[in-house]
UniProtKB/TrEMBL annotation:
Disordered: region residues: 19-57, 166-196
Name listed for the protein in its UniProt record: Uncharacterized protein
Composition-biased stretches (Basic residues): 37-46
Length: 381
């Protein structure tokens, strides 16, 4: 039997209709955050343990030991080293961390120079770096070793060197992370090959046909995975069989609405008629659901649903002579107890009984073997 599905929303003359559901779409987005490389990069930026590109386990970042300098820098932090460490790695991205480091390093001219008894009389270093951290909203200067330890960068001293070099060059902000953003990609799919996928999808979207299509045009075809990703992410195309066993009351106004698109008054009238019909269907389903929930507590009455399903031609053969011969129809009546969740199927051929009001054979089976056996004690008085 046909089934009605609620789709609409209109309020007219005090009648409230159900909200319109959003249309389903085949647009699919790539799960970039779920990729193994992205997960590893996220864990690395958070200071957690991760697997590198070669599958090696990298240890998590930890607070380093205190320095051994004369200033005793760890005591200057007044117990805030853990909060500094956590705040730094909670920034989550490499660029934000570099921006923070950029603001905590000061580059000044070197204060003194010592002559060396070598070929180069003076040191090549022209500047010196100072490192600061916030302690109770006050900038406190500490040594480089303590600065690396308190940020968990014991093995990343080059990172500070690159940032200090950018400061000495006069930059006001650090450079953005350029790792993996080069253009030296010999295996990248060319724009011409990607366009060939679009041209073929607009014609007929099948990969095996696409390979033949490319051979005819002397174009190197892309891989099947690339073809599928372009089709799924950039096209809203779906394939399905035509609907069958639909609701007659829904199909009639739908067809009339297609024919009366230019007549706005008639179109709106048909639309309201369709919405009212579908709202009644939803209300009936809601009433059945509520009745089943109420009856599930004491089970004093039955909630039975019937469905005469699609008729089956018998026998089902694919050979030519049998395919065109007239077959006997087999009927299947489904009877479902909505409270207990149990269902029964009753099959019979048209040689035993017809379908409709004259079909008494399934009714006898239901009354004798289903109702009486499942009825609660005392239900029939």
């Amino acid at each position: 039997m046909g089934k009605c599905r609620p789709i609409c929303v209109v309020v007219s003359r005090g009648t409230t209709f159900t909200p319109e559901k959003p249309k389903k779409s085949r647009w699919r987005k790539q799960d970039v955050e779920g990729r193994a490389k992205v997960k590893s990069r996220t864990r690395r930026n958070l200071g957690h343990s991760y697997l590198d590109s070669r599958g090696r386990q990298r240890e998590a970042r930890v607070l380093g030991p205190p320095c051994q300098c004369k200033k005793n820098c760890r005591q200057l932090l007044q117990g805030t080293e853990s909060s500094i460490f956590n705040s730094f790695w909670d920034l989550n991205t490499y660029d934000k961390q570099n921006t923070y480091l950029f603001s905590t390093i000061k580059v000044i001219p070197k204060k003194r120079s010592y002559k060396k008894e070598t070929k180069r009389q003076e040191s090549a270093r022209k500047v010196m770096n100072q490192y600061f951290v916030k302690v109770n909203v006050v900038d406190v200067q500490i040594c480089k070793i303590e600065f690396l330890s308190v940020h968990g960068l014991q093995n990343s001293s080059k990172r500070l060197k690159f940032i200090a070099r950018q400061i000495s060059e006069g930059r006001t902000t650090p450079k953005r992370d350029g790792r993996g953003k080069h253009q030296n990609r010999p295996n990248r799919t060319s724009a011409e090959r990607v366009q060939s996928v679009h041209d073929h999808i607009q014609a007929i979207p099948r990969y095996d046909y696409y390979v033949e299509w490319c051979k005819e045009r002397a174009i190197a075809p892309v891989e099947e995975d690339r073809y599928r990703r372009i089709f799924c992410s950039e096209y809203n195309i779906g394939f399905k069989l035509p609907k069958s066993d639909t609701c007659h009351t829904c199909d009639l106004p739908n067809n009339q609405m297609e024919a009366n698109k230019e007549n706005q008054d008639e179109y709106n009238k048909l639309r309201i008629q369709l919405q009212l019909h579908q709202t009644k269907a939803v209300a009936m389903q809601e009433c059945l659901r509520k009745e089943v929930l109420d009856n599930a507590k004491n089970y004093t009455k039955y909630n039975i649903s019937f469905d005469l399903q699609q008729t089956l031609p018998t026998p089902s053969l694919t050979i030519g002579p049998a395919f065109y011969l007239r077959k006997a129809w087999t009927y299947n009546l489904g009877i479902h107890d909505c409270v207990s969740g149990k269902g029964s199927m009753f099959l019979w051929a048209e040689t035993t009984a017809k379908r409709g009001r004259d079909c008494k054979h399934p009714t006898k089976i239901l009354t004798r073997e289903d109702f009486h056996q499942r009825a609660p004690s005392g239900f029939y008085g």
